[in-house]
Amino acid sequence: MGKFSNVAHYQDFTELKKILSASAANTYDMDKIEKAYKFAEKAHGDQRRVSGIPYILHPVSVACIVAELGMDTDSVCGALLHDTVEDTGVTLEEVTKLFGADVAKLIDGVTKISKIPYSTREQQQAENIRKMLIAMADDIRVIIIKLADRLHNMRTMQYQSPAKGEINHLKICRCLLRLLIGSVLKP
Question: pLDDT digit string (tens) for 5-19?
Answer without folding.
Answer: 455 567 889 999 999
